[in-house]
Amino acid sequence: xxxxxxxxxxxxxxxxxxxxIGDGIHVRENQTVLPAGRHGVPFDFADPALxxxxxxxxxxxxxxxxxxxxxxxxxxxxxxxxxxxxxxKRFRPLFTLLAAQFGDPDTEHVITAAAAVELIxxxxxxxxxxxxxxxxxxxxxxxxxxxxxxxxILTGDFLFARASxxxxxxxxxxxxxxxxTFSQLVTGQMRETTGPSEGQDPVTHYLTVVNEKTGSLIAxxxxxxxxxxxxxxxQVDALTAYGNxxxxxxxxxxxxxxxxxxxxxxxxxxGTDLREGVRTLPMLYALAERDPREARxxxxxxGALSDDALVDEALDLLRGSAGLERARRILEDYAGxxxxxxxxxxxxxxxxxxxxxxxxxxxxxY
Length: 366
Ligand code: FPP
Ligand code: MG
Prior knowledge:
Blueprint: H1 48-68, H2 74-85, H3 91-99, H4 108-132, E1 136-137, E2 140-141, H5 143-146, H6 149-169, H7 172-194, H8 202-229, H9 233-260, H10 272-276, H11 281-288, H12 295-302, H13 308-319, H14 322-341, H15 349-363
Antiparallel strand pairs: 1-2
Helix pairs in contact: 1-3, 1-4, 3-4, 3-8, 4-6, 4-8, 7-8, 8-9, 9-14, 11-14, 12-13, 14-15
């Protein structure tokens, strides 16, 4: 995937967004701009100057991601670069760079912060695939399947260590923020694993989990982008709130995609949540339905599904279910909350791009 520019109606420059343009990358309308075709979020920047600045920043982040994982043990470099090279949307660094447009986006700390956040995300994916017993990630064989669980866990630890080094370069405050972000993220994963407590509403539990495990790090991506560009405290808060809401929406959209995506399209194996017994929002709503036409779906969702034919049957039924529709509405609500958080920001190209990003998070599920 790649960013495609549709630059014809700039909404106006953000406070310092003249900076960063002119690094030798010239972007024309409808030109694809990211360094490798497998990276990026396909959405409309609506402003060529912004797209040029962001894509130059992302190229720097890519370079840093590749150099920061170098080890004197060649095998550690190989296993660490494995997922870096597999591509990915680079949603988090993109967001950091967009958030930085509200101050001076050209500070070195902005690039360091964007790479640190992406590296932490990558570390969690190595571990997550072990826990999920996943076989595919980003269209490639997952690291746990390519090597084994031990190598995948150690690689995740190694990336986390290298990310911590980058965060240390950002100073003590960043260290504190990342430490609490990471404990929130792991708590979310733990909460998902242990399930709702006695009598707890499963939807409330689910929304807490997705906010912690995904919203927390994406919020920090926005917070770091604004903080290190020197944006105002009000703007830091706005981008943090936007990140929380868009991150939660992003995880809901991922959970919808696990159901609706045809095999091979998302780069992961559809139905992983069903096989792992993870009850995502569409499933929770389907279970709460009373419609007798969906009785078979409820029966399937009641137990663990390991049989491929049963997983396929449940996926088919979920795709046409009222639960899926209801989950989509909640996704739209979160995307709308993210947009509301932008109201305090100046009306400029980066703000318009953040609006597009919130629309992309919904559109990717169709
Ligand atoms: C993706 O969820 C998982 C997360 C966002 C967080 C997982 C966190 C950990 C495994 C802790 C990692 C700890 C260290 C020390 C690195 P998902 O399974 O719903 O997403 P997917 O569809 O992309 O697999
Ligand atoms: Mg997973």
